[in-house]
Structure formats: structure tokens, C-alpha cells
Design a protein that fits this description.
- By secondary structure, the chain is of the alpha/beta class.
- It has a single domain, classed as P-loop containing nucleotide triphosphate hydrolases (Rossmann fold, 3-Layer(aba) Sandwich).
- The chain is built from 6 helices and 8 strands, in the order ββαβαββαβααβαβ.
- It has an 8-stranded parallel β-sheet with strand order 1-8-2-7-6-3-4-5, with helices on both faces.
- Helix 3 runs parallel beside helix 5.
């Protein structure tokens, strides 16, 4: 948000003119919900990785179908990743997203897992850990796209969202994975933006 410092000491805010950045950092992407530029950032982020066509992607879609989230990430025509894991809610899974496997990277097509609702923090955390553990011994880079914190904050309070993001980013750091989390700053108060921003290596402001 213009004029608002949403970072903790030592962490910076960049505007939409910046590149997607380091591939193993955790980034908070601030963008309007209806603005397609946030989706473009997903594609930029994946494309910025060395050998992006052979990377692994974990997509968390709390308010979209798996197909919609995948399409948003690959909209710029980058090579399709080797493995894709998608975590979605039962209500948004969609009729076409029927595949479910024992874990990421098993068989052909994406691994799709569901949680009961966007507020199921235990389920979300378990599914994310499951994917990271399955890919732990693979040298290919891993990127998590979390869409979105805006939806998450409609189901849980600020403290719960902070604790969840703190736990997830710690797991990502330990796994050497990168991530970007989407948040519409107009949908939450400034305190929530500032609180969540403190957890990330960088804030990408695309408002």
C-alpha cells in the first residue's frame, strides 16, 4: 500500500517493476483480488527459476478450482513443471479435478488433495508438509503458490494466520523451497498486513 511500511526491519518492499527475485525466498504479494497482475507474478516467479520446466510446484487454491490456479501460474506459456501438487477445498475442487494419488510425484498428472475449508489450518499444514517431504530428496527446485491469505483471513483471526504462516515458512526454509503468498491489502486492515509482512523475506507490492 503506498505510503505504508509493511515490512519488519531489514525486509524490503518492492514495486511491480522488480524481478521475481531469489528462488528460495518467501514473498508476500500484495495485489487487488480482481487484478490479473498477481497471476502474472506467479508465472514470473516460476519462470525465474533455473530449469523452470523441470521444477516442482505446490499450489494452494483456497478460493479457486485447481484448474484455475494452475492456469494462472502457467499463463505466460512456461514449460509445464515435472510435478504439480494442488491443495484445494472440497467446495472448490471442481468436476474436472478428479485425480487423487498417494502423494506428490506418483503416477501421471497432478497430485490433488483437499481440506475441509480454508480455515482448516491443521489440514493445510499437513498437506503442505506432505508435499515437501515427498520432494525432499529431489534436486529440482520447489515453489509454493498460496492463494490466498485474503481468503484465509476470512476464516481465522490475525493471530492464527500469523502462527500458520510462521510454521509454513519455517518448513519451506528448512526444505530450501521458495514461495509466494497472495494478499489483497484492501480486504484486511493495515495491522494485519504489517503483521503478516514481518514473516516474509520480501513484500512485492502490485497494488
Amino acid at each position: 500500500m503506498p505510503g505504508t511500511d509493511t515490512t519488519s526491519p531489514g525486509r524490503g518492499v518492492t514495486d511491480g517493476g522488480q524481478s521475481a527475485g531469489d528462488t528460495d525466498e518467501n514473498v508476500l504479494v500484495l495485489a487487488d483480488t480482481i487484478d490479473g497482475d498477481a497471476g502474472d507474478y506467479c508465472a514470473e516467479r516460476i519462470a525465474s527459476r533455473p530449469g523452470s520446466a523441470s521444477s516442482k510446484m505446490l499450489l494452494v487454491a483456497l478460493d479457486e478450482t485447481p484448474d484455475d490456479r494452475f492456469d494462472a501460474v502457467v499463463r505466460r506459456g512456461i514449460g509445464e513443471p515435472t510435478d504439480v501438487g494442488i491443495v484445494c477445498c472440497e467446495s472448490t475442487r471442481g468436476a474436472t479435478a478428479t485425480r487423487s494419488a498417494g502423494g506428490p510425484g506418483l503416477g501421471h498428472g497432478p497430485w490433488i488433495a483437499t481440506v475441509a475449508s480454508p480455515g482448516d489450518l491443521t489440514g493445510l499444514g499437513a498437506r503442505i508438509e506432505e508435499a515437501l517431504s515427498a520432494w525432499a530428496d529431489d534436486p529440482e527446485p520447489v515453489e509454493l503458490c498460496f492463494h490466498s491469505l485474503t481468503t484465509l483471513c476470512q476464516y481465522v483471526d490475525e493471530r492464527a494466520a500469523f502462527r500458520f504462516c510462521h510454521a509454513v515458512t519455517r518448513h519451506l526454509d528448512a526444505a530450501g523451497a521458495g514461495s509466494h503468498f497472495h494478499l489483497d491489502p484492501s480486504a484486511v486492515d493495515e495491522r494485519t498486513v504489517a503483521t503478516l509482512s514481518a514473516l516474509f523475506d520480501r513484500v512485492e507490492d502490485r497494488t
